[in-house]
Structure formats: structure tokens, C-alpha cells
DUF4112 domain-containing protein (Sphingobacterium zhuxiongii), 159 residues
Amino acid sequence: MENKYSANIERINKDFLWVERLSVLMDSRFRIGNFRFGLDPILNFIPFAGQIATFIVSLVLVTVMYRNGASGKLAIKMLLNVTWDALLGAIPFLGNIFDFFNKANDKNIKLLREHYYENKHTGSGKNIIFLIVSILAIVITLLLYGMYALSIWLYHFIF
């Protein structure tokens, strides 16, 4: 009789292999000379739909990794990689070039290996979330202040 733990390890190994294969397909399956690329930059030539499709695939990969025991800190780092890839990839023309060089899924596989084999990226990730929220709050505050200062300047300029 097979115990529950070994069945879980088999599922983790199976899922890890699936995630790794899909990650390679998305980021580094094809090769021209020494340069490797995947479906991600190719699909991103389809405006909007390609970006959404590759973002969803990357989110599924992160979800599968998290389901198989990736720490909260690791999941947040992987989500940041995926989000950064999607945001910068959405910039017309420059985003397409960026997508050929930024391989978020490959980075996430590297992070996952470090987590499982080297016991890195453990913990809840609360500090990362706090840092992100703090930076966003500062940026939003500066933007609001800038808009206020601009509106005052425009008011005095016009009247």
C-alpha cells in the first residue's frame, strides 16, 4: 500500500515537470544562433490578446507551484516577475523587444529550484508586500502632489 506522502511527492514531481516544460515552451524553446526565445514574445505580437494569454499561462504556472508547497515569499517573488513581464511587455514595440530578453517563467523555475533544493525564499513574504505597498503609497502621494502643484500653477498662469 502506498502512503499518502509518497503519492504527494509523485504529484509534486509530476507537476514540477509539467511546469518546467511549459516554462521552457513559453520562454526558451526556440533557438536562433545562441539566442533562445519561446512562445511568450511571439504571442505578444498579437495586441492585447497575446499579452493576456501569456500572463494567464504564467499565473497558472505560479498557482501550480504555490499549490505544491512554494512559500508565500516565493509566490510573491514569482508574481512580481510575471507582473513585471506583463507590464513592461504591454508597452508598444519596446515591450515586444523586452519580451524576447526577459524570461519571467525561466526566472520562476530558477527561484523554485532554489526554494526546493537550497531552502531559499522561505517565509511569508509580508515584508515584500509591505515594501511594495509603501512604495506605491509614496508614488501615489507624489503624483497627487504633482497634480495639485500643476493645477495651482495652471490656475495662476491662466488667471
Notes: The CA atoms of residues 19 and 147 lie 44 Å apart.
